[in-house]
Amino acid sequence: MRIQDRIQKHKAKLTSTDWMIYDYLDKNQKELPEWTMERIAQDLHISTTTLFRFCSKLEISGFSELKAIIKNESQAILTQADISLNYHQVVDYIYEYDTQELFFRMNSSKKIYIYADGEVELRVAKEIQRIFQQSNFQIYLLPNELALTSSLKQLTDELLWIIKLSDDGQFPLALYTNHKDIYKILLAPAQKVNVFFDELLFIPNVYRKEFKMITPYILACEILYLKLHLA
Question: Is residue 192 a contact partner of residue 19, using CB atoms and an 8 Å limit?
Fold first, then answer.
């Protein structure tokens, strides 16, 4: 099982320190096989025991197995079977996700605001717009932080989707303010989130640093749309 899949499976147990470790490992995949546990613990200012507990939470026997998994991932060639498996994971994830409150909010508002600051994110946002406009939802795209900040001052009892396909943990400053009247949904890969969201849709994805694969996110929204109408 890939590290990202393990993170997805056990995300409820992860602490802020665990997310810091995951982010560090993700950014240093190529160098990691040559590094020791002590080196990583020193870089992160944590104990080796903390690093071992991180492995344990992900059902990894120890640091050696962790390095082996990451090394294999970095050298793996993306196959058709990987993509097929990923699509099944997305369908299962949305099917099992508790959408009761999300669908209640969507049906009550009929308006969706989507923040997508980036070319790839905007492509996903336009697909969401295409999907949900079939049910007469009014979709408003917010293509930059200025548009987001301006809209947040006016929204009341509305839905705000945040599309974030990078996993750097950085969010627009405007989101750090508490907006009680706005229902916020994050559509993203698994990552540490230091901003409050009402819904966290961490979509399983075939991970490669060289490109961002958007099909899993679009598929997730297609399944959400079908699930909404079957509810």
Answer: yes
Q: Which residues pair with 114 in a beta bridge?
A: 141, 161
CATH architecture of the domain 3-75 equals Orthogonal Bundle (1.10)
What is residue 141's predicted lDDT score, i.e. its pLDDT?
95
Q: Could you state, in order of their start, the residue ranges of all structural domains in the chain?
A: 3-75, 81-230
What are the tokens at 69?
A: 């998994």
Strands (DSSP E) found in 4-157: 111-115, 138-142
Q: Domain 81-230 has what CATH class?
A: alpha beta
Q: How far is CA 99 from CA 15, 21, 54, 95, 213, in A?
A: 25, 30, 29, 9, 24
Per-residue pLDDT, averaged over 192-206, amounts to 85
Tell me the pLDDT band of 167, cut-offs 50, 70 and 90.
low
Instruction: For residues 165 and 189, give the distance between their C-alpha atoms in angstroms, rounded to a whole number.
Output: 6
Predicted pLDDT at 168: 67
Whole-prediction pTM: 0.71
Asked if 36 and 51 touch (Cβ cutoff 8 Å), the reply is: no
